[in-house]
Amino acid sequence: MTTNQLISEIRKKNSFLCVGLDVDLEKIPAFFLKEEDPIFSFNKAIIDATHQFAVAYKPNTAFYEAYGIKGWKSLEKTINYLNENYPEIFTIADAKRGDIGNTSSRYAKAFFEDLGFDSITVAPYMGKDSIEPFLAFENKHTILLALTSNEGAYDFQTKKVGEQELYKQVLETSKQWKNSENLMYVVGATKAEYFTDIRKIIPDSFLLVPGIGAQGGNLRDVCKYGLNSNIGLLVNSSRGIIYASKNDDFAEAAAGEAKKIQFEMKAILDGVH
Amino acid sequence: MTTNQLISEIRKKNSFLCVGLDVDLEKIPAFFLKEEDPIFSFNKAIIDATHQFAVAYKPNTAFYEAYGIKGWKSLEKTINYLNENYPEIFTIADAKRGDIGNTSSRYAKAFFEDLGFDSITVAPYMGKDSIEPFLAFENKHTILLALTSNEGAYDFQTKKVGEQELYKQVLETSKQWKNSENLMYVVGATKAEYFTDIRKIIPDSFLLVPGIGAQGGNLRDVCKYGLNSNIGLLVNSSRGIIYASKNDDFAEAAAGEAKKIQFEMKAILDGVH
């Protein structure tokens, strides 16, 4: 998917919501456990119920790997279901990969070509040659961890490297990489005040923002400092939507939560333009 | 496996060689392609031929993920084969994972409990709460990326954070994490002169050293600066061993290469003690 297609979808739906598919068998309605593939069945129901309010879905691969080969099958079925039924949806493999060049090429092929994801999250620690193999794929997007929403973000990311914090150094440096126009960035919502500085460095890039809801971020603050003329934000919510109810009404409850966020997003977008 | 068991195995075999199982279908002897599971069959042959010269095996998970569910089956069979036939061997899932706490717990469970690896490589960028879930597993080892062997290591890892380079900051900070005795570190062999400083910070920890051979590191230099009283090194070679020949003699050729390195290691250990 091209960035322009994503932007046009956002404008059409008045939504920049990403739904995180972090599925835990202990948290989904119990009746799914009787199904052949509980995770996929649950995802399918959630996607069908929420897709009109969302522009992106983000399975975190750890939740699938935790169930071994079965889990990988569920992931494969989920991405296939999305691509077949909702090709207008932007898909994110939240995998946080990154390795030396020939290995990163393998990951890129696996997630972009074989599984057919539009994008993947990657970690910056190993630098340029660990990321460029991902950037080489046309109309695929590489979402680099910059400032994450967890407490450990303060261990290294916000430490000063010379004049500026490490995460800013990551932003600056990555702009110089080949095909850097295919980069997006993870910026946690728990630190809305940081968005002003971030937008000075990467005014045009899309930011994937986790941490709304369960992790404590505030949507209005994030938008105030993070929106750009092309929206430039994908705001993720996982548990708040997919676990809105553990009962028979789980799908309607998920749709209700997604709609609530989309409604807020529309109000914000209406206020801006 | 406990660290003491690993040390005793190293002393018994006079080897601290780790064999990297980075299997590429295009590089293994063509006759394997007729088999039901070419990757596992190849790994099995390599392991059987080289196990007496090596103390550890390290499949890089990217190479398996690249083949989708089939690849995961090959990985599962490989680790099961190692655990069943060579329980004295230290196993490393080279996965370079790292995510927020509840997600890292998933990865830890998947690799330590379900797959049964002794250790996993992880990336430090997300800090303490992304790593501690791994450290919580008893007699399992978490191998933190410190200084990698690729060119991109100079992008961030060697940048000064305050008084010292980022990778040193990673070493210092990680020592304070809970159960830090379960930490080992990745330190690339292409930078042997760095080992002196590294040993000042973590004198007792095991270091996993990639980059001997294909990536240009030198075994004697690494040992000169990196060995400690408990050896404290696992030196990895992947392509140099597993692709020593593409013909019928691939297993003997792999054994020959492994033996050559083990012979050098023995000479170094004999010189030290």
UniProtKB/TrEMBL annotation, chains A, B:
Superkingdom of origin organism: Bacteria
Family the entry assigns: Belongs to the OMP decarboxylase family. Type 2 subfamily.
Gene3D superfamilies named in the record: Aldolase class I
InterPro entries, alphabetized: Aldolase_TIM (IPR013785), OMPdecase_type-2 (IPR011995), OMPdeCOase_dom (IPR001754), RibuloseP-bd_barrel (IPR011060)
HAMAP family: OMPdecase_type2
Catalytic activity: orotidine 5'-phosphate + H(+) = UMP + CO2
SUPFAM superfamilies per the UniProt record, alphabetical: Ribulose-phoshate binding barrel
Keyword annotations from UniProtKB, A to Z: Decarboxylase, Lyase, Pyrimidine biosynthesis
Pfam families recorded: OMPdecase
EC number: 4.1.1.23
Example GO BP: 'de novo' UMP biosynthetic process
Keyword Methyltransferase: no
Domain called Orotidine 5'-phosphate decarboxylase: residue spans: 16-254
Biological pathway: Pyrimidine metabolism; UMP biosynthesis via de novo pathway; UMP from orotate: step 2/2
The name this protein goes by in its record: Orotidine 5'-phosphate decarboxylase
GO function term, MF aspect, one: orotidine-5'-phosphate decarboxylase activity
